[in-house]
Each structure stands twice: as structure tokens, then as C-alpha cells.
Design goal:
Helices cover about 50% and strands about 15% of the residues. By secondary structure, it is of the alpha/beta class. It has three domains: about 40 residues; about 140 residues, Response regulator (Rossmann fold); about 60 residues, Arc Repressor Mutant, subunit A, CATH 1.10.10. The strands form two sheets. The protein has a six-stranded parallel β-sheet with strand order 5-4-6-7-8-9, with helices on both faces. A three-stranded antiparallel β-sheet has the order 1-2-3. Helix 5 links the parallel strand 7 and strand 8. Helix 4 packs parallel to helix 5 and helix 9 packs across helix 11.
Amino acid sequence: MVEAGRPRIEQTDDLVYVEGARSPTRSARVLDSSAHLRSTVIARILCAVKRARVLVVHHRRIVAEALARRLEHEPTLQVLGSAWTSAMTRSAVAALGPDVVLVEVPPEGDGHREIEAIVAMRSGLRVVAILLDETMAADAIRAGADGVLSVRDETATLASAVVGVAAGGGWVSPAMLGSVLRELRMSAPAPNEFDERLRLLTAREREVLERMVAGLDHSTIARDLVVSVNTVRTHSQRILAKLEVHSGLEAVSIVRKARRNPI
């Protein structure tokens, strides 16, 4: 019997009905079950996500092991181990198959050669370099590094860089980006008079000239670009006029002499 003035309450396996309520309420047991289910699903998703496998390399054992320990607790990484000699690194790469090698490059010596040697150990192997000398960033990239970091970067940043590089991306620490851009600008050759002439060409004329450089005749160029032979002849005449030459061979020579070859 329900006492007067009290709402009537009924409970099924899943729901609690309260008289006068707009909708039934889930019981505490069901709520606990739902929370457990969500936790289980999330755990399975995390397990299904492929973690980036990383090998840590440093010529000093204590530093290599310290770096490995710093990254071991990152959920997105699987630290395979550490190496501190070239022989150990080659063996570990061959036996463990890392996605990424994380190497700290000392400021002294030929650090870029160390990066080149690691890149050559296996096709597709990617390298993230931690640099003590931030001015070495451009050299490290030229040597084959897909990511460059400063020794001052946090562990979370190291992990993000390794994961990003393992996924096919690149990484440059913000602290180094300025020096990398300046180095690239300084290393680019200044344009010469032949570059200035080539800039006058339209996109279609560049396509025709590119095929002339490859040694194709007008008929082949026409088929390649799906145009008529007469159209190719017209483009060729305009190319010769803009480059101030009298033959296709001379036009090709202009391309060879340009410092910033756009063809």
C-alpha cells in the first residue's frame, strides 16, 4: 500500500519510474554498468591505436637511457630501447624495426653525418634529432632528419614530434624555426639574367619548354599536352622570342644556365 502524499515508485531492471516525473530515471546499477561499458570501449580504442615505435640513440649510455625513461610513460609511444654505439643502433634497427629513431646530436663533431648514417640503415626509417646547438637545425634537415627539436623542449613536445613524424609529417621546434628559415633564404642562389627571361613565360609555355628540355619533338609534345602541332609551334616561337634565342637548343641552354631553374 502507498502512503497518502508520497509518490508511487516502481522499478524495472533498467529504469526507475517516479509518479509525476516527466521521464523515467536510470537506476544506479545501470549507471554504474554504463560507465563501465564506456571505460571498456575507450580502453579498447586506445589499445587499437598503433603507437609509434621509437628507438632512442645517444653516444653516452646514461643520456640514452634517461631519454628513454622520459618517454616511456607517453601513451602514444612504444619505447623499444636505447643504443649508444653505431653497432648497437644498427642491430636494434634491424631486430626491432622502429618507426622513428630519436637521436640527440652533440654540438661537437659531425652531427649531420650521424643522422645520415641512421637514415641509411633502413628504407623508410625516420629520424627526429634533438639538438644542443640550435644553429645546426638546417644542417640536420639536409642530412635527412624529419624533425628537429631543442634540448630545452618538454617531454610532451618530444612525444608529439615523434608521433607526428611517425605519421609521415615533419617537425621543427619553434625555437629553431627562425634560424632554419634564415638559413634557407641565405642558401638560395640569387637569380641571374636567365632566370629573369624564364619568368616571362606563361604556364603553358613552361610546359612546352619542359618537354623540349626532355628532348621531345613537336608531335610528341602535342600528343602529351592534347593540343595540335600548330599550337605547339606557336608556343615554341613565343618561347624563343621571350628568351631572345633563335633555336630550341639555345632555349634549352637558357634553362641549364638559370640558377633557379623553374622548369
